[in-house]
Amino acid sequence: ILSKKWHLIRMYGTGAQSERVLEVIRDNDIPMLVMQGAWISKHQTAAENDAQIAEVIALANKFPKIVAAVNVGNEIFVDWSWHRVEDVSKVIGYIRQVRAAITQPVTVNDDYNFWNKPHAKLIADEVDFIGLHAYAFWNNQSSENAAWWTDSIYHDIQRRHPEHAITYSETGWPTSRIWNDGSYEGGLIGIAIIENQAKFFNWYIQWVDRNQVISLYFE
Fold it and tell me: Could you tell me which of 114, 109, 32 has the C-alpha nearest to residue 65?
């Protein structure tokens, strides 16, 4: 079903389910590629994080024609992340370990509010491309501003890292939300309905084609 419209999907961590998806793609000759992730978290033990790295290397080498890229960690540096990793040098070690062991390009996928910080250069210097997350809705934009904001964030990160290709690894517009409960989400101005999601999506796929941006849409 997915392969009729999409040619690239993401796996956020290793494990039996991720391997099974790769096997299904291989065994059924499905025309689809995978960005395979290693899930790194401060809530995991060092052994668990190490195992994710070892497993992502194994998967990339076992499925070299399907795994198009590897991401080492997802939103592990942005300051609001629940599973933020403080030890940057440890992650750099992981990136180097993976890059030395596979042939595919390697990234770290994170929010624009990490990639727009000066210290992000430490990670940018280690990866093959930038995996960018940016959501207009969650950054308190209206549906009318969503297209302009999404485009401006992409070009801002590209200016900050001109030596790298930028992949939009997460973006989208939701169809449900919390209202007026005193939380950050409750006070956002965006309207989370199917019509606004469709409006954003239809603009976005045209923008992707026009700008030739590799993208993974987060529904």
Answer: 32
